[in-house]
Amino acid sequence: DIQMTQSPSSVSASVGDRVTITCRASQTTSRWLAWYQQKPGKAPKLLIYAASTLQSGVPSRFSGSGSGTDFTLTISSLQPEDFATYYCQQANSLPITFGQGTRLEIK
Amino acid sequence: EVQLVESGGGLVQPGGSPRLSCVASAFTFNDYAMSWVRQVPGKGLEWVSGISGSGGNTYYADSVKGRFTISRDNSKNTLYLQMNSLRGEDTAIYYCAKGLYSGYDRTPFDSWGQGTLVTVSS
Q: How many CB pairs under 8 A join A and B?
């Protein structure tokens, strides 16, 4: 199984800050990497797929990069609605696996 | 707008066998693989099982292999998860999720249901 490790596990930031979350895979996932946002009591929401493709309707302040085993999610200027938990996911091989999550909190 | 509506959760005794359902609408159901993903409240996401659009290929996490069975009825736009021999560690919110790519079994998920909570307890 491909293990996905996110860092940091939690981060505190302020509105307007730039935040980067990293995701490392235990083996290559090519570009089969997606990022999700989840708010309390809600289902996850797809933000980015194929490592860097923005899902329709997702604000352009979200961006993704990377390939192989190392990936990043960047939020260029935090908005109040961005405080949530973020997960990476690989779909290069089965079983599909998720990172443990990064909780983004208001400073 | 794509809609996925799960049902079938609730309080189940250890060893029980509930069946979860997920009714889909607003997309061509048999074109897309579907999956079940679970989440212990307050914890992370765990992929449980997936099925191809035709239903001919099924996939399972090791944690549920041999106990859970995924299936679909494309005439009813419905996904199922038959859960057998339930254990306390199966307690979670179960989400059904739609594959992003038509025709791909391994795929990110672009739509999710609201989830159904399964609590395994005596």
A: 55
